[in-house]
């Protein structure tokens, strides 16, 4: 990685599941229809970052069907961003 083009960062916060965004519908390569799941992550300073958390099928559109995926508490991500 070019040290001037990419930067490694850590982001800590908690997910705001009540404000999630379902982007779609979209179809995967296997023909299954669903949505990209985007959830705001609120940081300690109150700023927010949108996190693309993956893809959910139409059957999992309702949060009540994905209880195990509704991460509670503080989470931390280590990632590379392009500047």
Automatic annotation (TrEMBL):
Keyword list (alphabetical) reads: Membrane, Mitochondrion, Mitochondrion inner membrane, Transmembrane, Transmembrane helix
Q: How does it sit in the membrane?
A: Multi-pass membrane protein
GO CC terms for this protein? mitochondrial inner membrane
- Keyword Nucleotide-binding listed: no
Instruction: Identify the main location.
Output: membrane
Q: Name one Pfam family in it.
A: SURF1
Location relative to the cell: Membrane; Mitochondrion inner membrane
What InterPro entries does the annotation carry? Answer: Surf1/Shy1 (IPR002994), Surf1/Surf4 (IPR045214)
The transmembrane segments are none
Q: Which domain of life is it from?
A: Eukaryota
| Record's keyword annotation contains Chaperone | no
Question: PANTHER family from the entry?
Answer: SURFEIT LOCUS PROTEIN, SURFEIT LOCUS PROTEIN 1
Question: What does this protein's UniProt record list under function?
Answer: Probably involved in the biogenesis of the COX complex.
The similarity comment for this entry is:
Belongs to the SURF1 family.
Q: What is this protein called?
A: SURF1-like protein
Read off the lineage from the record. Answer: Eukaryota, Fungi, Fungi incertae sedis, Mucoromycota, Mucoromycotina
